[in-house]
């Protein structure tokens, strides 16, 4: 995951500008990246109802014994450390993974302009 975070940061740095400050910009960027996983995963879904709300992005694995499902939540904030923790906590508080069976990788991603950080947890 550390390598993924490094690559993600580079993509954000190279492909966005300082005016891309809304959560939707980064959400759409990640959604586009997730489309490349099709074949190993189903098509990614955006803001689809799950649990007690709507996760930002959910990607169901076609073979969860080999590759975990993905649940992604974004937050924007100046304090990246707190924002990424809040994003991950929201996944659990709102029970987004409840419809998935098998291993799940939950990602809390935080942005402050072009700065990005993330926290993850396997369940």
Descriptive account of the structure:
This protein is an alpha+beta fold and 123 residues long. The protein has one domain (2-122). It is built from three helices and seven strands. It has helices at residues 2-15, 23-35, 80-93; strands at 45-46, 49-50, 53-54, 57-59, 69-76, 104-112, 115-122. The chain has a five-stranded mixed sheet with strand order 1-4-5-6-7. Strand 5, helix 3 and strand 6 (104-112) form a beta-alpha-beta unit. The longest helix is centred in the first third of the chain and has 14 residues, at 2-15.
Give the structural class.
alpha+beta
What is the domain total for the residues? Answer: 1
In percent terms, what proportion of residues is strand? 25-35%
Overall shape: it is: globular
- How many DSSP-defined strands? 7
Question: What is the subunit arrangement here?
Answer: single chain
In whole angstroms, how far apart are the ends?
15 Å
Largest sheet: 5 strands, mixed
**Low-pLDDT residue intervals, each spanning 5 or more residues:** none
Order of helices and strands: HHEEEEEHEE
Range of helix content: 25-40%
* Overall pLDDT level: 93
Number of helices: 3
| Strand order in the sheet with the most strands | 1-4-5-6-7
Radius of gyration: 14 Å
């Amino acid at each position: 995951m550390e390598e993924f975070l490094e690559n993600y940061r580079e993509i954000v740095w190279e492909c966005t500008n300082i005016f891309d400050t809304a959560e939707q910009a980064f959400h759409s960027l990640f959604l586009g990246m997730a489309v490349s996983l099709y074949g190993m995963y189903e098509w990614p879904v955006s803001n689809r109802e799950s649990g007690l709300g709507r996760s930002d992005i959910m990607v169901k694995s076609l073979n969860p014994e080999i590759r975990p499902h993905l649940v992604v939540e974004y937050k924007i904030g100046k304090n990246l450390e707190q924002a990424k923790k809040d994003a991950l906590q929201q996944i659990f508080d709102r029970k987004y993974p409840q419809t998935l069976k098998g291993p799940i990788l939950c990602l809390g991603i935080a942005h402050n302009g072009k700065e990005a950080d993330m926290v993850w947890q396997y369940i």
